[in-house]
Prior knowledge:
Blueprint: E1 15-26, E2 29-37, E3 46-47, E4 50-52, H1 59-71, E5 79-84, E6 95-103, E7 117-124, H2 136-148, H3 151-158
Parallel strand pairs: 1-6
Antiparallel strand pairs: 1-2, 1-4, 2-3, 2-7, 5-6
Amino acid sequence: MAVKGTYIYEWPRPMVTVDAAVFSFAEGKAxxxxxxxxxxxxxGQWAIPGGFIEMDEELEDAVARELAEETGLTGMxxxxxxxxxxxxxxxxxxxxxxxxxGIAGPGQTQIRAGDDAAQARWFAIDALPDDMAFDHxxxxxxxxxxxxxxxxxxxxxxSPSP
Length: 162
């Protein structure tokens, strides 16, 4: 393991983040968990919970940590969805994010804002905020498309219990 401060290169390096697109089901609808950003960039805008990975942290550990810090959710089963890396997606510099997705189970929908989040809230997937931070509107649409292909979605939404 390298010692902090020993990474010195002559060329620019991209930053790596993780994001957690977490869904829940309530009242016959699917919902996506978003946070309202407390700090710039995009202060006051809604975003998918996430943040920077630590140098010695596995991606799965980083996304679980960020989700817990910003929303209070722990013990979520998350799987890797896709990597997003469009140039210019973050005004702080070249950033690549690895997005994970999961579905909150019973007893996993109580949230509280923390760390970089001014608020945390569940949004119906057909009523997401128009102007989300970064490229999170695109990330949300990809995650929603994946959700709609799952058995959980079909069981909860397309064939709800009477």
